[in-house]
Amino acid sequence: MGLTIDHVTKRFGQFTAVNDLSLVIPESEIFGFLGANGAGKTTTFRMILGLLDPSEGKISWNGLPLNYSTSHLVGYLPEERGLYPKLKVRDQIVYLARLRGMQKAEAQKELKRWLEKFKVPEYENKKVEELSKGNQQKIQFIAAVIHKPKLLILDEPFSGLDPVNVEQLKDAVISLKESGTTIVFSSHQMHHVEELCEHLCIMHKGRPVVHGGLKEIKRAFGKKNLLIHADCPLDELKEFPGVVKAKTTMEGILLQIEGEQVAGSILQEIVGKGFIRKFALEEPSLNDIFIEKVGASYE
User: Fold this and answer.
1) If we measure between CA atoms, which residue out of 24, 59, 61, 29 comes closest to residue 44?
2) Continuous segment of H or E residues that includes residue 286
């Protein structure tokens, strides 16, 4: 069952922010939402949360409409952080947990567990404003998950974090998935989506332009990437039949080619012309697919 978005449209006056979106997101899965700014991701999240009503269509969780009666089942990490800077971390988190129907003692116990997990137990009695941006983000994340939601929505959870904090947050997301939470997240960083998601949806101007399993999407794209590092001139390969795009790198050249057979022809072309250090055929990146479908790079 999981989360069902059924022919959902959202209009603001003349402007259509989300246009006939249908998705099913299974339970215990990490689902990626991609799209340039203004594609309709945050509007979709706000409808899932019941903060906005769809103009048309229905959203349900395991057959139940999402509204205030189901709000304890949902957790949300908004893109704009929203903690009270003057409150101590413990008071802040316990207050938010009580709003979700938790008992105070249980909330304090969960908070301690999460702070230990993030290796910052000493933050319990600190004011939010005393923490760095990355550590405020961890506290905001704890606020979203303290009540053990069944459905967790993360809007740009990794933005502005250093690599160490990104890894800690990623580990937390994976452990939640393994314990049965359904997670929907949007990210500007394609590699996070590739690493974490089994299924994804790329939105463009309110519509889903790509939707499905990551492996199937890559396979259906058809094109491959070919990375060559060699001690011979490679620039003439840019004009080679079957090469769609070419980019010179520090060590060699990166080609986007129409299929595997083109790689064989290129190899025959360069063998014997110089030492080949690397000749690697790779799946297309999500960024390649995004650029083709949406006409702009995401980074």
Assistant:
1) 59
2) helix 286-294
